[in-house]
């Protein structure tokens, strides 16, 4: 029994009051002469005996009332124990099955160690076993099931994650004896995963085993590769290399595009050095728009998985783009034409044919055969065929118009009424303006698309710091979007998609020089953005465990439905379904190394490669490793085994019954006191 307010028990000392009153209230007698003493003494004895008995009863009642009141205010409670079923010991086992464990016999040793930890656990233990890289787990199983789960584990080309393991430890059964065991090679990537745990897990006992090599082995890896336009019709491949070993190494880098002949180069790396090496590969001619690129290094070492890198190319064939510039005169077309010529010379994959014409030589046949039509200034409405321009846009062309000093509103109004133009210029503001905010993307699809690549190049010039002399207030029409604005809020670039094509209005300066923008170093990047990015090498290379995307073919872009399913082949040769997402074919995460490819023609490729850093086998020092593991766990006193059954405690209050008893005694006391006084 326990008390809520034990201090009130001191009130029981109040029984001294009734006792003192009882003693002081004893009657005192006087001697009175009387005859017949024999009969008087007999009656007196009988009366005093009854009175003493009644007074003693009153005394006991009042003492009991005081004691009960003291107990009532102290709040006594009785501790009850409800017997529960026995709580079995719980063993948590984490085994690192990331790719770094494939070095040597690392995975075999890890499996053997984890199975030994399972066999040495108590006979009645339950097991939660976690594979840290693959994400596989089994919970609440017995010893044979846990042992079979561990025995089936194989290394996967993924990085370790420990969040599920520590979350399960935090939700371990209450009252059970908790043990934890970790087996890993504790490479830098694995240690980074463990370092991400902020709160230690409460366990009764923990152990860990490191199964990696005792010293850092020799290992050179390809960490990344990027294909870029090169010189003389070649493709330049930037290959990222990392020497994870302590000693210098010389390797040969070999590259191959499709069925073209391979080319190679060599590189020497110092111990623990990282660097990039350029490899020139011939741009394939007539091989189709989708090609596989394979990069490898030799000689191979003890970790061959990271000696290969795969990239799927899209749009790598040489393409031609016919651009027609309409201007008031040759001088007005000069800046735009110069930027286009420079753009064509900077990228051997860009074949841009530029034709400059004055407004009066507008020809519907010229427009019909063009890819891009640019109006350096607005022509008179009477000299252009608005219907021809509308058909050009609807059929897939791109129409670009600058709004400069010689504004002719009727030209823009007519294009807007035809439903193909994004905005109409209004009143002019001749103040010096600046651009602000991010430059919006014309397309919202693949981040490796030509438009997206052009925007990345454009942002490097810091155009928000470039002063623009004057602009117009623009009135956007239905479907028109302001992609970039001035600091006044007026739009700088407006865009509208119409049919299979698009139209762009550039709100340039109100002078006659196409604004300082076209005279700046950003002019080439800006024109590249406006005409659609030119011929761009798109590439599809992903880390294992990432969602994979493949480019859509022209036919699929024209006919695919939002909920349409596609079938692709995974590196293991299995077919799986994919979905249409943002103009790309999206595949769920792939946990294998190799090619993902479409089953339909034209065949498109995406390479799935080793995540960077996963094969860094740098051996950790013992002391820091001990400190790291100690930080992960907070040991507690072991649960005392009280036999086959344990109980849950419950408190039952006793003060209500004591209160009722005190009230009853008060009533009895009134009755007895009344009888005594008679």
How are the SSEs placed, and which strands pair?
Elements: E1 2-3, H1 16-24, H2 37-74, E2 76-84, E3 90-95, H3 106-119, E4 126-131, E5 137-141, H4 143-151, H5 163-170, E6 178-184, H6 188-195, E7 201-203, E8 205-210, E9 220-229, E10 234-243, E11 249-257, E12 263-269, E13 274-282, E14 290-298, E15 308-314, E16 319-327, H7 330-346, E17 350-358, H8 364-368, E18 372-375, H9 386-394, E19 398-402, H10 409-417, E20 423-436, H11 450-459, E21 467-476, E22 481-486, E23 491-498, E24 501-506, H12 523-531, E25 538-543, E26 548-551, H13 554-559, E27 565-569, E28 575-581, E29 584-587, E30 594-598, E31 605-609, H14 622-632, E32 633-635, E33 646-653, H15 655-676
Parallel strand pairs: 3-4, 3-6, 6-8, 7-32, 16-17, 16-18, 18-19, 19-24, 25-31
Antiparallel strand pairs: 1-2, 2-33, 4-5, 9-10, 10-13, 11-12, 11-14, 14-15, 15-25, 20-21, 20-22, 22-23, 23-24, 26-29, 27-28, 27-30, 28-29, 30-31
Helix pairs in contact: 1-2, 2-15, 3-4, 7-12, 11-12
Q: Can you describe what's shown?
A:
This protein has 15 helices and 33 strands. The longest helix has 38 residues. With 678 residues, the protein is α/β, with parallel strands linked by helices. Among the domains are: 90 residues, no CATH class; 82 residues, Sandwich (Immunoglobulin-like), CATH 2.60.40; 213 residues, Rossmann fold (3-Layer(aba) Sandwich); 72 residues, Immunoglobulin-like, CATH 2.60.40. The chain is elongated. Helix 1 packs antiparallel against helix 2, helix 3 runs antiparallel to helix 4 and helix 7 crosses helix 12.
């Amino acid at each position: 029994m326990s008390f809520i307010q034990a201090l009130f028990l001191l009130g029981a000392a109040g029984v001294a009051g009734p006792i003192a009153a009882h003693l002081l209230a004893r009657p005192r007698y006087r001697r009175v002469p009387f005859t017949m003493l024999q009969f008087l003494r007999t009656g007196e004895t009988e009366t005093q005996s009854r009175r003493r008995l009644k007074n003693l009863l009153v005394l006991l009642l009042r003492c009991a009332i005081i004691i009960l009141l003291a107990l009532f205010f102290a709040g006594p409670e009785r501790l009850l124990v409800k017997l529960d079923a026995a709580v079995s010991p719980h063993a948590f086992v984490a085994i690192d099955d990331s790719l770094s464990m494939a070095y040597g016999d690392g995975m075999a040793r890890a499996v053997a160690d984890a199975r030994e930890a399972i066999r040495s656990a108590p006979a009645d233990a339950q097991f939660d076993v976690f594979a840290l890289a693959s994400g596989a787990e089994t919970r609440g199983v017995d010893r044979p099931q846990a042992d079979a789960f561990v025995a089936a584990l194989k290394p996967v080309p993924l990085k370790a994650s420990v969040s599920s393991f520590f979350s399960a430890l935090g939700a371990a059964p209450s009252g059970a004896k908790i043990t934890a065991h970790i087996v890993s090679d504790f490479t830098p990537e694995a240690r980074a995963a463990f370092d991400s745990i902020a709160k230690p897990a409460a366990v009764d006992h923990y152990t860990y085993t490191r199964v990696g090599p005792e010293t850092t082995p020799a290992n050179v890896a390809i960490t990344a590769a990027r294909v870029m336009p090169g010189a003389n019709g070649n493709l330049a491949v930037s290959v990222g290399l990392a020497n994870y070993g302590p000693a210098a190494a010389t390797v040969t880098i070999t590259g191959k595009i499709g069925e073209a002949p391979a080319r190679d180069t060599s590189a020497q790396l110092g111990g623990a050095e990282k660097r990039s090496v350029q490899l020139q590969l011939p741009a394939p001619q007539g091989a189709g728009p989708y090609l596989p690129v394979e990069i490898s290094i030799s000689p191979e070492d003890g970790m061959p998985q990271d000696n290969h890198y795969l990239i799927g190319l899209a749009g790598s064939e040489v393409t031609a783009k016919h651009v027609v510039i309409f201007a008031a005169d040759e001088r007005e077309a000069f800046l735009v034409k110069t930027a286009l010529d420079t753009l064509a010379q900077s990228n051997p994959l860009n074949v841009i044919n530029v034709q400059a014409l004055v407004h009066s030589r507008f020809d519907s046949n010229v427009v019909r055969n063009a890819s891009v039509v640019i109006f350096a200034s607005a022509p008179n409405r009477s000299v252009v065929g608005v219907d021809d321009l509308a058909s050009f846009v609807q059929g897939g062309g791109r129409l670009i118009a600058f709004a400069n000093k010689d504004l002719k509103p009727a030209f823009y109004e007519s294009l807007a009424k035809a439903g193909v133009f994004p905005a109409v210029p209004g009143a002019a503001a001749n103040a010096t303006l600046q651009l602000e905010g991010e430059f919006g993307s014309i397309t919202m699809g693949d981040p490796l698309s030509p438009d997206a690549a052009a925007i990345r190049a454009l942002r490097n010039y810091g155009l928000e710091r470039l002063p623009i002399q004057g602009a117009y207030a623009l009135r956007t029409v239905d479907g028109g979007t302001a992609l970039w604005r001035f600091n006044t809020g007026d739009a700088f670039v407006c865009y509208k998609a119409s049919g299979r094509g698009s139209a762009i209005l550039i709100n340039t300066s109100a002078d006659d020089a196409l604004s300082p923008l076209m005279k700046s170093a950003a002019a080439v990047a800006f024109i590249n953005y406006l005409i659609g990015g030119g011929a761009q090498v798109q590439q599809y290379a992903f880390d294992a465990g990432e969602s994979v995307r493949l480019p859509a073919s022209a036919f699929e872009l024209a006919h695919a439905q939002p909920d349409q399913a596609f079938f692709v082949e995974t590196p293991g040769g299995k077919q799986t379904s994919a979905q249409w997402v943002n103009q790309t074919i999206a595949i769920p995460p792939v946990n294998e190394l190799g090619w993902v490819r479409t089953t339909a023609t034209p065949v498109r490729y995406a390479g799935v490669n080793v995540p960077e850093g996963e094969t860094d086998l740098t051996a950790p020092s013992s002391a820091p490793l001990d400190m790291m593991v100690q930080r992960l766990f907070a040991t507690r006193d072991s649960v005392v085994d009280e036999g086959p059954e344990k109980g849950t405690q419950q408190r039952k209050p006793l003060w209500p019954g004591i209160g009722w008893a005190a009230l009853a005694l008060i009533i009895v006391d009134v009755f007895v006191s009344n009888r005594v006084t008679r």
